[in-house]
Please model this.
Amino acid sequence: MKNSSPHIGIFGRRNSGKSSLINLLTGQDIAIVSEQAGTTTDPVKKSVEIFGIGPAVLIDTAGMDDDSTLGEKRLRKTMDILKHIDAALLLFTDNQFGEFEIDFIHRFEAYDIPYIIVHTKNDLALLSEETKKTVSRYSSDNIIDINTFTHESKIRLIESLKAVIGDNAFKMPSMFRGLIRPKDLVLLITPIDSEAPEGRMILPQNMAIRSVLDENCMAMVIKDTEVDDFFKFNLRPALVVTDSQVFDRVACNIPDEIPLTSFSILMARIKGDFDTYLRGTQKISELNDDDHVLIMESCTHEMSCDDIGRIKIPKLLRSFTGKDLHFSFLSGLSEPDRDVSQYALVVQCGGCMITRKQLANRLSPFIEKGIPVTNYGMALAYVNGIFERATRIFRQN
Model:
C-alpha cells in the first residue's frame, strides 16, 4: 500500500541552484530561476511526478545565508520544514562548503533525515579534491557533482534519490496484516453523512478496501443503517471495521465474538505510535476541570455541524468526564499557539493525509513532555465504553 508521497526538502545558500534543480528533476519550469540571489522567499511545496520515483512533494526553501531581518524569518520557516520532510538535498556551488552546510548536516542527522550532498553548477566550477576532503570530515555521504543542463546529471540525481529513499521506504504495511487470512470476509461500515465527500468515500475507507483485496480477502461495504439486513444473509465476517462516529450504534448490532474496530484505529496501527495511543487513551478518565485538550487534524476541510474533531469529540469528552474542558484545534501541520506542556491530552486524527514521519514528528514534543496522546478512533471507542473490544484484536496479534 502506498503511503503519502515522500516530502523532499531542497536546501542551500542563495543562488545555489535550488530552483534550477527542481526544474531539472521535473522536466518543467515550475520554479522561478533568476541570477539574482534570494528569489525564493518562503518554502514552496510542489507536488510532482519524478520519473523513476513516482509522486513526490518537493519543497524549495529560502537561502540559508540570508542575514537580513526578513531572512531570519525565512530561515525559521526553513528550519520548521525539517520536521516534515522524509529526505533532503543539500546544495552548494563553486566549492563553497562551510558553516551553513555543516549546520544543516548536523540538523539532518538530529532529525534522522536521509540526505544527499549536491555540488551544483559544475559547468562553471568542478568539485575540487580539497572540498571533498573537507566534506568528508562532517559526512560519510558521497557528493554528487552535477549541473542542471545535462540529462546525465538528472539520471545521477534520480538514482541517488532512489538509493536514499529506498524502494519500500514510503510503502505502508497492510492495514490488515496479521488480522485476517486469505478468503476471509471483512465487513466495512461507512456512514454517509454531511462530512462524507460528495460522490466519494474518505481516504481511509478507500485504503481499507484496497488492503482487504491485497490480503486476498473479500470486502463487503455497507452503511451503518444496513447492519441488521447484512446479518439476515447468515454471513459471518472475520472482522468488522466501522467509522468511529457510529461505534455506539454498530457495537450493539455486532455479536461480541466477532472482532470489531474502526478505520481510525487501523490508521493508528500503521501510522501512529500504537502502544502510546493505547496508554494515552486511558488518561481520558483522569482529566480535570479547566484542563486544556488539543485536537489535531492533519488536513484542512470545511467544518460542518457534524465535524468529528471540532464538534463531536469535544462534546463527548465533556459529557464522559463531566469536566469543564477547554479545547484548542490545529489543522494541517501548523504549530500549537501555546507551550505544549500546558495540554493535558492530545487527540490526533488518523493522519491519512501525511506521512508516518510527519505524524511522529508532530507528536514527539508532547510525548517527550509526558503528555498523553490518543487518536480519534480510540478516544471515541473509550467514551462509548467499547475501548477494550475495539482494540482486542490488536492485543491478540
Remarks:
- The first strand starts at residue 7 and ends at 12.
- The two ends are 20 Å apart (CA to CA).
- The chain has three domains: 7-165, 185-266, 274-388.
- The longest helix spans residues 151-165.
